Amino acid sequence: MLESCEAAIASAAGAAAAVDRAPRIILRLGTCAKRGSGNENGGLSGGKNGGAPNGNRRDRGDGGAQTGRLAARENLLGISQDEMRGLRGREIAMIFQEPMTALNPVLRIGAQVEEAIRVHEPRAGESEIQRRALEALERAALADPGRRARQYPHQLSGGLRQRVMIAMALAAGPGVLIADEPTTALDVTVQKQILELLANLRRELRLSMLFITHDLGVVAQVAGRVAVMYAGRIVEEGPVEEVLRAPRHPYTEGLLRAAPRLTREKLAPIPGTVPSLDALPPGCAFAPRCPHRVAECDAAMPELRAVNKNHEARCILVP
Known about the structure:
Elements: E1 2-11, E2 14-25, E3 29-32, H1 39-49, E4 58-59, E5 65-70, H2 81-87, E6 92-95, H3 99-102, H4 109-120, H5 126-139, H6 145-149, H7 158-170, E7 176-180, H8 188-205, E8 208-213, H9 216-222, E9 225-230, E10 233-239, H10 240-245, H11 250-258, E11 305-308, E12 311-313
Helix pairs in contact: 4-5, 4-7, 5-7, 7-8
């Protein structure tokens, strides 16, 4: 569990809070929001920047800073780059959105999968590393893994490249997997196959998974809990079926109304645009676009309020 997560991005006006006091990220969670709402930054903060206990804050020197605490671990911001490198891939791994830009175009597939094993297990022999790399490719459902290992990324389809990314992420046996929109660039048929593969691997390997997406249908399929983010803050969190069936934040309601349906209904877009992170309104960030806006919304940012013991929403309409 990643607790009290914050991430800031340097801007001309100073540090802008891309993730602002996310109280907790429970892994096997889906995060959902429109682009620019901060869900990718929440995942990157957990996978790359780690956390600092007790609200400690460390400036990076470029105008940005991160805080947070990863339960059952030391202060990740206080460890060296070599120690952090030992965690990446070994304990926390990530699948990126576009495999063609994440894979090295001049290295064969097998060499790229082997690298993750070689870095974390320097005592392993070459034959053992190659065997395990082929096993990782086979686990990711690539047919004829020996042939695929000798190919280059441009020789594979988008779906096969994403399977390679999954094999690379799981090659060193991490316990936490961050999936940053891993199906966005794929067609619907391949997307279904990748989602089923991730679900099977999560069960078989007992992985904790943070799945970042803008697709509510994907959220419903892969997540046990969902956190909806807007302007860098979690605005609603709870069991996925409950949140999608009975949302309590106006932004979540707007996302569901704007989702395409099989019936020939006119879509209801959310008016306005997401505010700039360095010019957020003083109260609720969603207030300028909210159909239920009242004066109290502009006074201060509301805290997360309990709908029930498993469901919270950041809205004054929640009693």
